[in-house]
Design brief:
Order of helices and strands of chain B: EEEEHEEHEHHHEHEHEEHEEHEEHEEHH
Strand content of chain B: 25-35%
Number of strands of chain B: 17
Order of helices and strands of chain A: HHHHHHHHHHH
Radius of gyration of chain B: 23 Å
Largest interface: A-B, 25 and 31 residues
Helix content of chain B: 25-40%
Strand content of chain A: under 5%
Number of strands of chain A: 0
Strand order of the largest sheet of chain B: 7-8-9-4-10-11
Oligomer: heterodimer
Number of helices of chain B: 12
Helix content of chain A: over 70%
Chain lengths: ~250, ~325
């Protein structure tokens, strides 16, 4: 019991720090919100004219932008740990009498909170622009994004724990963030793709989230809500375990 | 009982041996200094003692716990102030301390009380709710010292506690460390490459060079061990043999263009020395400091940033003769 309390306090400590930073770094939050909004209105507005999916293109791509928000925020926040390495803040955390697994979970909780809060802002924006949300679909959306964020934050933390200098931080956006987004099916339907592209989209956990959210919000989906959620949960298990391992082997 | 005990503690990085078979025992309540130039292996030693780095071989016991077998108990026994800033500057001093308190499982009801107390120790109560990024280097270091004390560790590690601080702030930090040792009775281990710092603060000093302890004693004994005052002579025709023959001259050593002597009571004997020394162009006498001790044991200077013009002269002349 004592150990449980100790570990919960440890996780809360890490979460507390992430949350405080989130509330202070408003420019970071605003700029990361701007990105999906710009894509949605500018890209969506333009593509809507030519898209094959019909006149509801702005509805079709909306779930993808919630997912985009979570991809960007989760991965960047997770990998941000490489900056903590640069200043000795990470040492201060790792020297505490807590297991690294506890610290990893605290970090996941903290980064996820940021990502989900940002996604919530987009969700509210969606309600305002009359995306047909219902109370049930809002809850299903939150659950789906929550599960996606667990895996993606873990992925960010794994990358951050391997990176030695913040200079490589920038690579994440081109090597991981954009591929995950572009392969997710956020912008185009995933049926009738060439085989190689089809395989790549199947490897992208975000593609299941996009499809699952379309099921919840728009009622149009390839696989339905629950199967997609299950697959993401599978990704989560693998990524969380890998992340725990990466944290335990991380050198300073 | 010794609070810290290391046996053959070694850390190798491929070819380089950063710490070489270190054997240290530190008594409870001591202020113990690891003095040496940058790259001597001081920080590596602290990292191993604090379980952040695994030794290549050898063992270390902190507060009776093995750093390899019981790292969590070791970590609960120690506090650490890192060489580089390790606080989050987007948080306030209070928030940084609260984070630390939660990480160390301090009972929630005691957290605020303890934070007030440690901030009081370093005179930072008034800045409690300011963001750390508004702090000066000295304030930030003080805040990090306070943070390290929050969980009342038995052993406190300070890695270069005053590096990069101005002389006045440095003196302040020394005061804090001294009064801390007196009030709490905890064991303090600090690394430094400022010999003055080691001299003023430490009960015992281990002089470290290239990963090895070359001398270990109280600063006074180390200095006394050199056998008197240091006199530097320069001249075109020095009568080295005559100087050597004087009864109060304990050692004669050529240091580049200079002749370095160890002399008993230089104030009293200088005149007599100069009578027999030959044609002298330059003479300087001083009581030995830890820099002389380091020089004696390693043949090199320890100080870099704080060198007087005399040191630079000596360094230049050494470089030329090499």
């Amino acid at each position: 019991m004592k150990t449980i309390i100790k570990n919960i306090k440890g996780m809360y400590a890490i979460w507390y720090r992430e949350f405080k930073v989130f509330t202070r770094e408003r420019t970071r939050v605003v700029s990361s919100l701007l990105m999906p909004l710009m894509w949605y209105f500018i890209f969506g507005g333009g593509m809507g004219r030519v898209a094959a999916v019909g006149s509801d293109y702005h509805l079709f791509i909306f779930p993808g932008f919630l997912v985009m928000m979570v991809i960007f925020s989760s991965l960047f926040n997770g990998a941000y740990i490489v900056w903590d390495k640069k200043i000795d803040f990470l040492k201060e955390v790792l020297i505490a009498p807590l297991s690294r697994t506890v610290i990893f979970f605290g970090k996941v909780a903290g980064c996820m909170t940021d990502a989900l809060l940002q996604a919530m802002i987009l969700l509210i924006a969606g309600i305002i622009i009359r995306i047909p949300f219902t109370p049930v679909s809002v809850i299903l959306t939150i659950i789906m994004l929550f599960c996606l964020a667990v895996g993606l934050v873990s992925m960010g933390l794994i990358m951050g724990s391997f990176m030695e200098s913040p200079e490589s931080y920038g690579i994440i956006s081109s090597v991981v963030v954009y591929p995950l987004f572009l392969l997710s099916g956020a912008l185009y339907p995933l049926n009738n793709l060439p085989l190689w592209l089809n395989i790549l989209t199947r490897l992208d956990p975000a593609s299941y989230a996009v499809d699952g959210l379309r099921s919840a919000i728009l009622g149009t989906s390839a696989a339905g809500y629950l199967p997609n959620l299950m697959i993401i949960a599978g990704f989560d298990i693998v990524l969380v375990l890998t992340g725990t391992w990466a944290f335990n082997r991380m050198k300073l | 009982m010794n609070t810290i005990e290391t046996v053959n503690l070694t850390k190798k990085y491929e070819e380089i041996t950063a710490v070489d078979s270190l054997g240290l025992s530190v008594k409870k309540g001591e202020i113990f200094g690891l003095l040496g130039p940058n790259g001597a292996g001081k920080t590596t030693t602290l990292m191993m003692l604090s379980t952040l780095l695994k030794p290549t071989s050898g063992s270390a016991y902190i507060n009776g716990f093995d750093v390899l077998k019981e790292p969590s108990k070791v970590r609960a026994s120690i506090g650490m102030v890192f060489q580089d800033p390790s606080s989050d500057e987007i948080l306030t001093a209070y928030e940084n301390l609260k984070l630390h308190a939660l990480l160390y499982n301090i009972p929630v009801k005691d957290i605020n009380k303890k934070i007030e107390k440690v901030l009081g120790l370093v005179d930072l109560q008034k800045r409690k709710d300011d963001l750390v990024k508004t702090f000066s280097g000295g304030m930030r270091r003080r805040m990090e010292i306070a943070r390290g004390l929050l969980h009342e560790p038995k052993i406190f590690f300070l890695d270069e506690p005053t590096i990069g601080l101005d002389p006045q702030t440095r003196e302040h930090i020394w005061e804090y460390i001294k009064s801390l040792a007196k009030e709490t009775g905890m064991t303090i281990i600090l690394t430094t490459h400022y010999m003055e710092e080691a001299d003023k603060l430490c009960d015992r000093v281990a002089i470290i060079d290239e990963g090895k302890v070359v001398a270990l004693d109280s600063p006074d004994s180390l200095k006394r061990g050199l056998g008197g005052d240091i006199v530097l002579l320069k001249g075109s025709k020095l009568e080295i043999e005559a100087i050597r023959a004087l009864p109060f001259v304990k050692a004669v050593q050529e240091q580049g263009a200079y002749l370095q002597l160890s002399i008993e009571e230089s104030g009293k004997h200088l005149q007599e020395l100069l009578k027999v020394a030959g044609v002298v162009e330059f003479v300087q006498a001083h009581s030995p400091d830890l820099n002389d001790v380091f020089l004696h044991f390693t043949g090199r200077e320890i100080r870099e940033e704080e060198g007087s013009s005399m040191d630079r002269l000596r360094a230049i002349s050494r470089a030329k003769t090499k």
